[in-house]
Amino acid sequence: MTQLRSTPATAQDRRLVQTAVKGPTADSQDAVFLPFEHDAALEFRQEHSGVDFWCGTVNGCGRQLFTRIGDEKIPHFFHRGENEEQCRRAQRNRGRLDLEAPIVWAELKPWRQGRDLPEGQVDFFDPIDRHDARYMHISGPVGTRDTRIVLGDVTIIQVQQDAASAQGREWDWFVHERNTEVREILDRQGIAYARIKFVPTAISATLQVFLSTPDNVGDWGRISRYVPAPNRAPRPPKPAPPMTADSRPATARASVAQRTAASGPARERGNPFARMGPPSQLAPLRGLDGGPTREPAFAPGPPRPRASEPTGRYTFAVRVPAPRSEEQIANEFKDAIAHLKEALVLEDRKTVARCARRLRALRKAHRESLSSDDNRAIKTLLRQASTS
Ligand SMILES: [Zn+2]
């Protein structure tokens, strides 16, 4: 029999849960990563004898996990005696990336309290089909400040809309440094945000935030030291489309000419959400390698043209009939359908209700762009959601 010990091929088995939280209860945010390598995993187990592991309550099912260190598969955590189909993490684990949600919650709870905000409730969103498009939202009682954390480097429409919305101005934002999409929207909106990254350690990771200094140098540090800057006014659109080189510095947002040229009836360009990047960005960007490193070198890539309009009014694009490309609408449908299907599989009633609302609104707004087959399929799905 082939020995599959810590080879790259086995590392691609997506069904294996590679992270857990450790401690007396599933509410722990002490997130750990079980080494892929057999001997290192055995050492990990030895060092954690008598320690309980849990799937975690931030992004997991909250049940207890146990280590399995054999010769057939890479070392992993498993849910004992239960069907792993019931756990979304077991269904679609993201390797080391699964550490991030509990780590963020562990760090942001005291940070919020330090700013006299209630601890709040955390929700973790992990859209299917978007490998790295995960985000979290911490909300407290009405009237208190929310916190939005964008973990992945791929942006889903919901997050873009939130970043451009009036309510988004009222939140504290934490955005992964590689998520240039959301960062550019926030920059354009004048919304202050923290750039974050995760630095892997042997069996976990630490969250770091970029702390800018008055001399504009700045450095990465602990989140406890982060104080949000006040928001600025949204950047106004340019009055006329200058077709020659303008006086702006040649930054990643240099293509103002292209952006402001969209002021007419141009179908896509006037809409800040018309593009989410080339199609390749919508597809899963990286394989679910779950490999031992998670911080690839950051390559900003070439500047991309962006839509530019005063975006504050796009609170919910489904309510505002801004023109969108067929492809964009199709992607939104795909996204909303996938969300709802997943929520149905997981029997997560709260999420089912939320996803059904979104899909229903989308269908209402763009019924004309649906084929009758698609329309029927969506109706069936919504009916299923309403009876679940
Ligand atoms: Zn689980």
Tell me about this structure.
The chain has helices at 38-47, 88-91, 100-114, 157-163, 180-189, 256-260, 279-282, 326-346, 349-365, 372-387, and strands spanning 19-22, 31-33, 53-54, 64-68, 76-79, 121-125, 135-139, 147-150, 172-176, 193-200, 205-211, 219-221. With 388 residues, the protein is of the alpha+beta class. The chain has three domains: 15-93, no CATH class; 100-225, no CATH class; 321-388. Strand 4 and strand 5 (76-79) form a beta hairpin. Residues 55, 60-61, 63, 79, 87, 89-90 line the site of zinc ion (ZN).
Structural class: alpha+beta
Global mean pLDDT:
76
Pick out the low-confidence regions.
Answer: 1-13, 245-321
With strands numbered from the N-terminus, the spatial order across the biggest sheet is 6-7-8-9-10-11-12
The end-to-end span amounts to 45 Å
Major β-sheet, in short? 7 strands, mixed
Give the names of the bound compounds. Answer: zinc ion
- Domain count: the total is 3
- The backbone outline, from C-alpha atoms, is globular
Helicity, as a percent range: 25-40%
* Strand element count: 12
